[in-house]
Design brief:
single chain, alpha/beta, FAD/NAD(P)-binding domain, seven-stranded mixed β-sheet, binds NADP nicotinamide-adenine-dinucleotide phosphate
Length: 311
């Protein structure tokens, strides 16, 4: 069993920032990642609101820089998904991955969130065959075709705008008549001739035999049913926190986010939660990184207090 000072679960912006801090504090740090480093930004075309990049920066490139920085200070990235976490009677944590078991004195969970699913018939069946949760990854498959983007938030518009580089028309289908997205993205979307808006409408079914062919819609005001012929459906209706390893260990809010104090401490000494998986997060890259730094500083204080001599 490998012994660590700090185990960080999730290598998104929050986790990599925590690792930069704990690595610099010379703590034996491992960052566990089940998919790819960077989390949600790794599939973001341009990040425009992260300070220091006035021209914007590609999300994947930014994530790689964060990774290099964490590794430079000695953090080790372990590409294994954490399956469970337990606290032992000697104030340590045991971390089980599909591959191995690790022991750590403190744990920072920065597992982020995944895109929410519509839960309508046809969605699960047609994933990868026209249904997608990532415009940046899959937009190029829809050259010259019409697609739908579901949702009215920043993700829907940001990703929808990216997909207009390929698709001939991007139909934004939103359940209300007002967008939740920020003014800047709203203005850009309204000004783009390839973006089209269908208001007060929800998706009831996605049809297609081998590929998406059509979506069945319902107007939320009139109750009227309609259908739209399209080749792709991009779903951006919010996120579900990856908090399953915290269930039963710490208190979660109604949305499944972990309750923490201002120092990102949970009620369990030595267990910290930061970024999109904690309650009340601003869900921005810069705030996730800020959370990661806060959690790392709290973890350092905890280790110095609990093990003042180092052992
Ligand atoms: P979000 O802000 O929660 O928006 C989700 C959208 O989906 C809302 O418009 C919501 O409608 C709609 N929705 C929710 N459930 C639905 C359902 N079952 N059926 C149909 N529509 C449904 O999520 P997000 O857009 O993923 O953004 C998450 C966070 O990331 C936000 O804080 C956002 O600012 C940030 N973000 C920022 C950027 C950027 O700055 N460039 C880019 C991406 C994301 P209602 O409006 O009616 O609730």
């Amino acid at each position: 069993m490998q012994d660590l000072d700090i185990a960080i679960v999730g290598a998104g912006g929050a986790g990599l920032t925590s690792a930069i801090y704990t690595g610099r504090a010379r703590r034996r740090t491992a960052v566990f990642e089940r998919l790819m480093t960077g989390g949600q930004i790794a599939t973001t075309d341009i990040v425009e609101n992260y300070p220091g990049f006035p021209q914007g920066v590609n999300g994947f490139d930014l994530a790689q820089l964060m990774l290099q920085q964490a590794e430079k200070f000695g953090a080790q990235v372990v590409y294994e998904g954490v399956e469970s976490l337990e606290r032992t009677s000697d104030d340590r944590f045991v971390i089980h991955t599909a591959v191995e078991t690790y022991r750590a004195r403190a744990v920072i969970v920065t597992a982020g969130a995944d895109y929410a699913k519509l839960g309508v018939p046809g969605e699960a069946e047609l994933v990868g065959r026209g249904v997608s949760y990532c415009g940046t990854c899959d937009g190029a498959f829809f050259q010259g075709q019409e697609v739908a983007v579901i949702g009215g938030g920043d993700s829907a518009l940001d990703e929808g705008l990216f997909v207009t580089r390929f698709a001939s028309k991007v139909h934004v289908i939103h359940r209300r008549d007002q967008l939740r997205a920020s003014a800047l993205l709203r203005d850009r979307a309204f000004a783009n001739p390839r973006m089209d808006f269908t208001w007060n409408t929800v998706v009831e079914r996605i049809d297609g035999s081998s590929q998406v062919e059509r979506i069945q819609l319902r107007n939320t005001v009139t109750g009227e049913a309609s259908s739209m012929a399209i080749s792709g459906v991009f779903v951006f209706i919010g996120q579900v926190p990856n908090s399953h390893i915290l269930k039963g260990l710490v208190e979660l809010d109604g949305g499944g986010h972990a309750l923490v104090d201002q120092g990102m401490r949970t009620a369990i000494p030595g267990l910290f939660v930061a970024g999109d998986v904690r309650t009340g997060a601003a869900r921005q890259l810069v705030s996730a990184c800020g959370d990661g730094a806060t959690a790392a500083i709290s973890a350092e204080h905890y280790l110095a207090e609990r093990w003042p001599g180092g052992e």
